[in-house]
Design a protein that fits this description.
This protein is about 75% helix and about 0% strand. By secondary structure, the protein is mainly α. The chain has a domain of about 30 residues.
C-alpha cells in the first residue's frame, strides 16, 4: 500500500505524458496516411523526420519526469 498519496504533481506529469504521446501519435497517423497515399514529397519526409524526433523527445522527456517523480514517492525502484 502506498505511503504517500497521489499528489497534484503526479496528475500534472501524467497529463503531460499523455498529451505528448497524443501529439506523437497524431504526427505518426498523419504521415502514415501520406505514405500510404504515396504523396509524401522529399521535403515532407525531411520535415516528418524532424517532427518525429521532436515529438519522440518530448514524449520521452515527459515520461522520464513522471518516472522520476514516482521514484521520489518510492513507488518505483531507483534507476540503476
Amino acid at each position: 500500500m502506498p505511503t504517500n498519496p497521489i499528489c497534484s504533481k503526479c496528475e500534472q506529469l501524467l497529463t503531460e505524458v499523455s498529451d505528448a504521446m497524443r501529439h506523437h501519435v497524431s504526427l505518426m497517423s498523419k504521415n502514415n496516411a501520406l505514405v500510404q497515399s504515396d504523396s509524401l514529397t522529399e521535403e515532407q519526409w525531411q520535415q516528418f523526420r524532424s517532427d518525429l524526433d521532436a515529438t519522440f523527445g518530448d514524449a520521452q522527456s515527459a515520461w522520464d519526469a513522471y518516472r522520476d517523480h514516482l521514484m521520489e514517492h518510492g513507488w518505483l525502484p531507483s534507476k540503476t
